[in-house]
Amino acid sequence: MSNKMTGAQAVLECLKREGVDVVFGLPGGVLLPLYDAIYQSDIRHILVRHEQGAAHMADGYARATGKVGVCIATSGPGATNLVTGIANAYMDSVPMVAITGQVNTWLIGKDAFQEADITGITLPITKHNYLLRSAKDISRVFREAFYIARTGRPGPVLIDLPRDVTVDEVEFTWPEVNLPGYHPSVKVHEMQIKKAARALMEAQRPVIYVGGGVKLAGAHKSLFDLATKINAPVTTTLMGIGCFPEDHPLSLGMLGMHGTKYANYAIQESDLILAVGARFDDRVTGKISSFAPHAKIVHIDVDPAEVGKNVRVDIPVVGDAKNALMALEKEVQPKPRGAWNEKIDGWKRDYPLTYIPDMDIIKPQFVIEKLCQLAPDAIITTEVGQNQMWAAQFFVHKDPQKFISSGGLGTMGYGFPAAIGAKIGRPECDVIDIAGDGSFLMNSQELATAVLNDIPVKVAILNNGCLGMVRQWQELFFEKRYSATILGRTSPDFVKLAEAYGAMGLRATKPSEVEPVIRAALATDRPVIMDFIVNPAEKVSPMVPAGATLSEILELEWCEEGHISHLEKVYADARKAIFGEEGY
Amino acid sequence: MRHTIAVIVENKSGVLTRIAGLFSRRSFNIDSLSVGATDNPDYSRMTITVEGDKDVLEQVIKQLSKLVNVIRVSELAPSESVERELAVIKVTADKDSRGEIMQIVNIFRAKIIDVSARSMIIEVTGDEEKINAIVQLLRQFGIKEMARTGKVSMIRGTRVIKA
Question: What are the structural domains of chain B?
């Protein structure tokens, strides 16, 4: 029997065989043959309104499901619009396959209409990429791409697909993957596990420092078993949030720049750090030369290049986090609670994460607490900035696949499309994007996608009328010169914006309105924007100033009276300009 | 410190760009890079000289190894390997200086591969120091042009670096 088909049909066959049930994309000239094949296939296609949205949706889908996310964009501007989304997935090690259209092979290099060298452009931000030159290579390349994207340290792989390659006829085959230069390390070295176990047993003040690698390896249960067996406290990076239940007595929450005081103190006083799937990022370590000065460091990572990249490692363990943690758990003896646990509990009592409640004006932290109370099992995505840090700090995270945030690249505009992708992957879950008024506008056009495809995600905008994180830094380090960070006057009415797209818009201006708004949003099966008008002067606290040691973490003062009123006035004027004298 | 590494890569288009790109974006310094075929047409061999301490070398090797098209990366310790470079040098040479230049060429076991009324092209092979030395001596006659290949290197004895 002949398996003859067009290149485009072969692409769809590959996607089917790789278990892809949904793709996110936007068509274009060179993609006409591929989109014609999509039209005739049963794969679900989500039409986006900007290709960046497609990449973030594929990313959110991948993080919420653990499967490879797929996005599609046309040649030239379509492909370059994917770039931020691909870089985002690369920094956070998200399994993704990006398919881009390309001009006909005979036009490549001739500066043809809508031609861009996307394999060249994405070289530093993909795990690997391909420019297909012949239809007979389609199945091999797609199979390799999915294999590379999801194995080892996952990451995005891009396939550039010239138009003629999708038109040519090809005999479909399904060759085994044969990559002589790609051997992800999975098995862990027994000797290294023994050494690590001994170090853990000997340690008086151990801390387990957990990153996104634990999520990617599905190792959170093994982590829990190990930590509770030896009563070792656990702190997570932003990427590791949810890998260890934050309501557990051993949880230290997040560490680093906006981490808890007790996590940072514990790191600085520890005599052993067990780092798992984490990469000692500068936002985590603070001043690297004085990071954990008394600690021996054990580093478990699937990527050998991460071991020893930023800090000196005493016991490297290269391999899959789940295998390593399981082996380690078998190797260690149970350890009771001790003086170290007492000391940490003392810090937790003395320096809890907190904020000053307010009866009249909504505090952003209060919104997060209410969301957590009313939707404790929701998938939370975030934008980037203050909203992201408050979401990390004040929501009690317990599930590794339910906190989705742009960690490495810090992409504003990520959270909303990521929420759409997550909702498609996990339709049974409530999905809430915790956003800022700045970030949300960066991909707000995807409201059309949510409405068109009936994807009932909820957006909680912590509307402070400014680019809050940068404003915070200007307040602290640039003598309150708010250069280009006050938005109030220029932001749209988010309720009307939602309605213009056919979504639901709700607003809360007083603390008493927060709960009813959240309840109403959760009750409907439509996409909703909740516009919470919050205190513009609020800062994310505590904070390790850039370049300082973790123990130099500051509780940021609630800024002086005059200044609050100044910011409030700026914001009130802006609101008046939009909504008139009566306000809302 | 300088380190020499041999990199066996798949012989595919774009591989050199991937390696050069990796070096520039991670701020690794390449002193020299040479690339050519191996006995297996599917693979090429690169010899790269990098500047940096032990930590830099470790990162270079690990990051190179992560590239899908890279099959093998090995450091070549100078004491355990032989290394060669080739240079072609065009010097000003008239009938007065020609004899002296030929003497130098003989001492260095180099070759004259082109002669004209006013110039000569000299081909010399050796390690970097030897080539630097002959260049130094030829400078007095006037070097018009020079091209060097960059280093190739191989471990002494029976050990091999292959795909």
Answer: 2-76 (3.30.70.260), 82-152 (3.30.70.1150)
Smallest Cα–Cα separation from B20: which of B1, B42, B48, B54?
B48
Mark yes or no for CB contact A181/B18 under 8 Å. Answer: no
Q: Please name the residue ranges forming H helices in A453-493.
A: 468-477
- Rounded distance, CA A18 to CA B141, Å? 68
Q: Is residue A61 part of a domain?
A: yes
Closest residue by Cα to residue A374 from A541, A509, A533, A530? A530
Distance CA A567, CA A535 (A): 9
Indicate whether A177 belongs to any domain: no
B7: nearest CA partner in chain A: A181
Would A572 be classed as within a structural domain?
yes
* Chain A residues contacting B via beta carbons under 8 Å: 119-120, 123-124, 127-128, 131, 148, 179-182, 303-305, 308-309
Query: Which tens digits make up the pLDDT trace of A269-284?
Result: 999 999 999 999 999 9
Q: Is residue A358 part of a domain?
A: no
> Angle between the A83-91 and A51-65 helix axes, to the nearest 10 degrees?
30
**B21 — contact with chain A (CB < 8 Å)?**
yes
Contact between B66 and A303 using a beta-carbon 8 Å cutoff: yes
Give yes or no for a contact between A23 and A16, defined as CB atoms under 8 angstroms apart: no
pLDDT digits (tens, 9 = 90+) for A483-542: 999 887 678 999 999 999 999 999 999 999 999 999 999 999 999 999 999 998 899 999
Instruction: Identify whether residues A199 and A325 lie together within a single domain.
Output: yes
What ipTM was assigned to the predicted interfaces of this complex? 0.91
**Other C-beta atoms lying within 10 Å of the C-beta of residue A442:** 21
Distance CA A106, CA A113 (A): 13
Contact A123 B18 (CB under 8 A): yes
Residue B16 Cα, gap to closest chain A Cα (Å): 12
What size, in residues, is chain B? 163
Inter-chain contact A181–B9, Cβ cutoff 8 Å?
A: yes
